[in-house]
Amino acid sequence: MGALLVTLKDIANRLGVSIRTVSHAVNGTGRLAPQTRKAILETVAEMGYFPNAAARSLVTHKSKLIGVLVPFLSASFYSLIISGLERLVRQHGYTLLLLNPPVDSGDPQEICWQMMQRKVDGIILYPSKQIQKAAAFIRKTGIPVVQLMDHTPEIGDCFVAVANFKAAKEAVQALCDSGCCNIAMISHNANSPEVADRCRGFIEAVSERLPGFKPVIVESAVDTADAKEAAMKLLTSHPETDAVFAASDFAALGVAQAALELGKKIPEELSVIGFDNLDIASEQLLYALSTVAQPKEEIGRRAGEMIIDLINGRAVAPVILDAPLILRKTTRNIRGEKC
Amino acid sequence: MGALLVTLKDIANRLGVSIRTVSHAVNGTGRLAPQTRKAILETVAEMGYFPNAAARSLVTHKSKLIGVLVPFLSASFYSLIISGLERLVRQHGYTLLLLNPPVDSGDPQEICWQMMQRKVDGIILYPSKQIQKAAAFIRKTGIPVVQLMDHTPEIGDCFVAVANFKAAKEAVQALCDSGCCNIAMISHNANSPEVADRCRGFIEAVSERLPGFKPVIVESAVDTADAKEAAMKLLTSHPETDAVFAASDFAALGVAQAALELGKKIPEELSVIGFDNLDIASEQLLYALSTVAQPKEEIGRRAGEMIIDLINGRAVAPVILDAPLILRKTTRNIRGEKC
DNA sequence: TTGAAAGCGGTACCAT
DNA sequence: ATGGTACCGCTTTCAA
């Protein structure tokens, strides 16, 4: 077995050349005699040398590290984003540093510190309430930041998000088109702009298509059980409801549960559309959920491209992706008769 | 605005003390006059200093980084493991370096290189076929490794896995107990030991409880559509089948789809048990899937504890976790009459 | 208790 | 085309 730690110097000594020469051979930089380079590369392979990122980082002031800060890893939502992201940045020689602190707990500064200490070249994060508190701190470091899904100006204005308003509006329009005229919405208590935009989209679609109709919007947690409870109240107090637009797939499933329990037929008596297109939507045995599909991998990919552009000093514009509506079994696709 | 890069030296100069003194103050090491320490800490806060991990790593030969190498981030399976893992290691001052290379493609050595260059203190990985090729390389570096879910001796013998054999056996026994006597299994073509153990558990349970019965095992990909196809063949060629044990939740769902399409009632005419307990199992509207629950977060947590013990030179023993059976709607819980 | 200084493994500038 | 060398920011002996 060879040395556990082969350095440039070791190679240089072995070949009787200078460290600088070996460095250039390894990096493919500078001008070197082809023969010299070849000899070095052979020795490098033979001795099992690989560069020490820390040493390199220390002198170049670059870490080739990208910090990722997302709230949930659970629901496969951010996981897919990260999957797309990882792939892209790796192609550019970057590696992900993954932070996944428990939601809204712990000192945001402390979390950021971890990334600062590592001297990450860029940061990709979801601007949660908690993180927003560290906005000034993050900004002051001057490290490029790409925000995900949402966008807080205090942190910066590079972000990749989804056209929530448009997507929601289209979903609700589709509901109208299929003949629904008593459409309600299940929203989420978070005062997050994404959800707010979905509400606005809902409201605008309704007011355009169903003039005079006063839609009801109820709130629930992003959780099937809680949404079901909310939906039970909604559907009993407003039995005329013939469609529900939910701000998440979890909520949509809660609605469907409630409807089923109340003996409402889906989609004949009640249409349901969710948001996100998680596995739980597509993999329903019966009642495969109609939903607004967030392009998760693409979001990750675009965020990756953006952060790399930023790191390289290129100008970038925010990216807002369309989220197409996927009609499955919880909506009537045939155009029903108008109310 | 202050300097973008405050160093120990800056602090030392400002206070007229030596670098060493500041270093000790920051790290809480060494003996220092309380007043000196206090003054330094104040200046540190004031100037917004934070240590440079690269510099520190260079001299300590420790990176406080743990490399994570898992195949899928998609199905929320590894995501949950990582979630549990991240939380634990962060409490110990470690950060995760996340690698998620496309399954079975790319040079395994190259992937490992990324971690070696970063001088990760420990590695947590799923020993895929691809990674196994780099076993010797990994081993030679002497970096502690904890394997997930499976275990290749060439890589090492620290791992946290699940008692697949036992869990599968218990699941099938439960099927027998509920009165099923024509039990089939959908397995997966991967020659992975985990899946093989599930098959063994299935076979042993069947041969103990249903002497003389020759069970059929068919294979499919870990994919609803493919499993459905396999199940269609199975259920039509063996219409007497009254229960299917699937090696994954996806496969189980495929089976259920096939059954429904063939007009078989679940669970009255066909019981189905899956494996993993993913969201898609628990969040089924109808037919909430009975399944073997892999304790994902705990797997992550235990792997985290193990790698840290390893890093600290403590002795560790492999961990094999139980995976409890969760009975939901796709099994008859009432004890049916024996065949 | 504190300071000076020697590296850790690289990069890059300045000579040669 | 190549060698010598001054750092990068930090930890850690060794002296004082």
Structural description of this entry:
Two copies of one chain form a homodimer. In chain A, strand 1, helix 5 (77-91) and strand 2 (95-99) form a beta-alpha-beta unit. The N and C termini of chain A lie far apart (81 Å). The radius of gyration of chain A is 26 Å and the shape is elongated. Chain A has 339 residues and is an alpha/beta fold. Chain A has three domains: 3-51, lambda repressor-like DNA-binding domains (434 Repressor (Amino-terminal Domain)), CATH 1.10.260; 62-161 and 296-321, Response regulator (Rossmann fold, 3-Layer(aba) Sandwich); 164-294, Response regulator (Rossmann fold, 3-Layer(aba) Sandwich). Helix content of chain A is 45%, strand content 15%. At the A-B interface, helix 4, helix 5, strand 2, helix 6 and helix 12 of A face helix 4, helix 5, strand 2, helix 6 and helix 12 of B. Strand 2 (95-99) of chain A pairs antiparallel with strand 2 (95-99) of chain B, so a sheet runs across the interface. The structure holds a DNA duplex (16 and 16 nucleotides).
